[in-house]
Amino acid sequence: QDVELGGYASFYEMELAAGAEALSQTVASLVDVDGSAIMDALDVDPFELKRIRKVVVVGAGTSYHAGLVGRFAIEHYARVPVEVDVASEYRYRDPIVDDGTLVIAVSQSGESLDTIVAVREAMAAGARAIAITNVVGSQLARVADGVLYTRAGPEVSVAATKTHLAQLAALELLALWLGELRGVLFPEEAIERRRALGEVAQAVGSVLEQTEALGATFRELASSQRFFFIGRNVALPVAMEGALKLKELSYLPAEAYAAGELKHGPIAMLDREAVVVALVPADRLRPKALANLEEVKARGATLVAVVAGEDARVTELSDVVVEVPATPPLLFPFVGVVPLQVFAGTIARERGLDLDRPRNLAKTVTVE
Ligand code: AGP
After folding, report:
1. Considering only CA atoms, which of 299, 315, 298 is closest in space to residue 307?
2. Which of 65, 216, 285, 291 minimizes the number of CB atoms within 10 Å of its CB?
3. Which residues does the UniProt record annotate as the domain SIS (predicted)?
4. What is the tally of helices (H) and strands (E) in the chain?
5. Per-residue pLDDT tens digits for 324-351
6. Is 159 touching ligand 1 by the criterion CB < 6 Å?
7. pLDDT (tens digit, 9 = 90+) per residue, 243-270?
8. What is the DSSP letter of 51?
9. Is 112 in the pocket of ligand 1 (CB under 6 A)?
10. Ligand 1 centroid distance, CA of 294 (Å)
């Protein structure tokens, strides 16, 4: 196993370190040298996609979180309403589906039963379906009308890392393509966005280079018992993913909240014992995010900020600052999630847990 792990202590850490590569391989497989989209493998009639009236993204766990990020891109670029649901809820809520619905099912394994059934049922009601999966020939890939494969390579760790980055990339590219098809985006604009996505792999790489330094800082927080993750807008699903990773690997209570919701209840839980991880993208909501950091600080909680670009005010307010490269706002999740993956791994390792064998979990859930 040592050889397989190439010097890493676990598959989790090895795969986390491969995030930039997973992202760039996925982009390379879906973007041509001239910057145009390669969507022929998708095998869904572009005319059908042009006239869809609603998109529904379904998935579970980390794949669901990717879908939540994807919603921002699809609504922004393609101007079509998007619903995102966990597959196990979607299938039982008697959803409104017709032949103007496009279901995008996100699943690393392509074998999560809830996701497969959600897609089957939506298709039976007239929807078209596209699968985003990392496993060629998986059941989901076979059930859906079309597939976009992520090219992250096999993922062994139960807690997903690199495949999440690849999912985010596939969703962004699908959003751009829908935007072009629907005449919302000019081809040159779409090319420009795809170029920006290609560049984000380097930004992710630069965050990954800080893994050791981040670990050394995060280690100090390993004895804390309560963790909160907050973000707004595109950073909220990042917060949710950070909390999920920590729960899976460390078994500690870790909850994510929309930062604006704190004052509607959750802030009552904050005290000196709590650790709050705040996501601060470089977007128009930055002043709002800063106001949330102030609220957290005033309650005496330990504040960890993951901030895009340098920010003196954030540094002043926070106990730990993780600076990630400033990207176009919609691409923040790519660089924002990596420190949270490192965070979860560090806390769990420090607590003596086996990162590759989290208790009670299976890599793929093929039962209801
Ligand atoms: C991720 O770290 C989890 N192990 C889990 O939430 C996972 O994302 C979920 O079970 C969905 O799996 P899938 O992507 O293979 O469908």
Report:
1. 315
2. 216
3. 45-184, 217-358
4. 15, 10
5. 999 999 999 999 999 999 999 999 999 9
6. yes
7. 999 999 999 999 999 999 999 999 999 9
8. T
9. yes
10. 34
